[in-house]
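Re: that chain you flagged

S.,

Sorry for the slow reply, it's been a week of failed gels. I finally had a moment to sit down with the sequence you sent. For the record, here it is as I used it:
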Amino acid sequence: MKKRGKQYQDAQKIISSERTYDLKEAVDTLKGVSTAKFDETVELHLTTSVDTRHADQMVRGVAQLPHGLGKQIRVLVFADGEAATIARDAGADYIADSAIMKQIEAGWTDFEVSLAVPDMMSKIGKLGRVLGRKGLMPNPRTGTMVQQQDLSKAINDAKKGRVEYRTDRTSLIHCPVGKKSFSSQHLTDNVASLMNAVVKSKPAGVKGIFIRAAYLTSTMGPSIPLDVHELTSIKID
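Prediction finished late last night. Pasting the structure tokens below so you have them in one place:
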């Protein structure tokens, strides 16, 4: 087993493994025990009861984080003609012309979000090998394939901060929710927005408990067990 550093072990002593924490207390505790010299990313980890062997139990969606992720979001848009003009005016970082599409086919993915209008989907199918592996393939289920009239809003939302969540093959969901430097209120708001979206995504085939366990953690710090009942009951104003 990997030996943890002294700072990690000291932080772990502060966190009780015998109880769960409500969200506000967990955020305050995390900010107190995160001692890395860089601005650590804060993540929410969820253990679900879904059976990923069944396609209808896959959980996948997008949550809009009210306070973003604390980093620049570069948006690439697959569009041409009028849609490309709309995307450029809305602040898209890249419009995927034929030259950029060739770069992507060769492995270039220096952007965080890719959007596409429907009539471009047939042209980008060959890029699935690269974009799919990075989770960047436009998809109507994640709100990244958008109608031309919705393009400006989609770009603005992506720039503000959105996060895609999905269950992995072990039925876990891992998502960033901000940076350690965020205020406690901003981290709490972001977690609440993510949880609101995840809870609404509960598959119809899942009966009983959906979220079995939840943890808040930072890049270098120990995880903090959360009160699942409180977490899944949070209402967004």
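What I noticed first: The chain has a mean pLDDT of 90.

Talk soon,
D.
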